[in-house]
Amino acid sequence: MSVQDFMATTVTTVTPETLVRTAYQVMRDARIRHLPVVTAEGTLVGIITDRDIRRAAASDVPHLAEHELLSQLEQLRVRDIMTPEVVTVGSTTPLREAGQMLLQHKFGCLPVVHANHLLAGIITVTDLLRASLDQYEAGRLMRVRSMMQTPIITVTPEMSLPEVQRLMRDKHIRHIPVVSGPGYQRLVGMITDRDIREAAPSPATALTRGEIAYQMEKTAVKMCMTHEVVCIGPEAEMVQAARLLVQRRIGCLPVVDRATLVGVVAAMDCLQAFLQTASGA
User: Which of 25, 183, 215, 267 is the most buried (most CB within 10 A)?
Assistant: First the structure.
């Protein structure tokens, strides 16, 4: 199978002249993290991510509110902060090769281009997981315990949102299990970067920066975390984990054994498992 069998051909894009604040709003509305940058003729000239935007907006200020972020982006154009050297694939690229490229570069997606560099589509880690699910029978794929991530970065329900934001930024992660109880090993929730953004004051707020900082500092993780968490056991097969990730449209799964958090497994871990199994076949 090749990329063309599973890529998305309807792609949300921006141009180099698009205001960065507009690109950011497009990402929020479409709930996506990457935007290919194309010319009026459809030629791919770059890519911009939500991380690029927050870096450009001095997002090292933990309590930066939505309206402040947009204000700082007022004059910037996409061309000012986009990545111009884009790693791409062709529509006939084998899925396995595309998967290896995603793992190597730790990307969430790859633009698909024609020979003349016209944008043809986009393929994501989720697309590759979906493509791989039907290829493996029960018992052929390794178990979650073999690929899960340990040690685990966690937070407690009482931690403030700015603390969690700093931790996510420093560790380059987007999802953190929330734990409680003796030894802080009992899973009680999950918090993501999107949860924190949605907990921030509205762009229409009249609050001052100091008031926003105070409000965020006083907001605890337990106020905006997800309480009903989808999780998996360490003896489950990776194909089961991949199916949950695809069906629930989530980025990672906490791994729980006898009510104790023992690891996390992400979409990239599942993709790596599929590729390793294919290599050993």
Answer: 267
Centroid of chain to Cα 146? 22
- Rounded Cα distance between 174 and 169, Å, is 8
Asked if 33 and 50 touch (Cβ cutoff 8 Å), the reply is yes
Task: Please compute the mean of the pLDDT values over residues 128-153 and round it to a whole number.
Answer: 80
Q: Quick: pLDDT tens for 38-48.
A: 999 999 999 99
Alpha carbon distance 214, 63 (integer Å): 9
Residue 269 token pair? 């871990």
Distance from C-alpha of 152 to C-alpha of 160, rounded to nearest angstrom: 19
Residue 248, token pair as written in the block: 């629930």
Residues 15/37, Cβ–Cβ less than 8 Å? yes
Which residues, listed in sequence order, are joined to residue 47 by a DSSP beta bridge?
36, 83
Task: Return the SS3 of 157.
Answer: coil
Average pLDDT over residues 165-181: 89
Say if residue 54's pLDDT is above 90.
Answer: no
Distance, CA of 26 to CA of 197 (rounded, Å): 15
CA distance 247 to 257: 22
Q: Rounded to the nearest 5 degrees, what angle is found at the Cα of 31, between the Cα atoms of 129 and 68?
A: 140
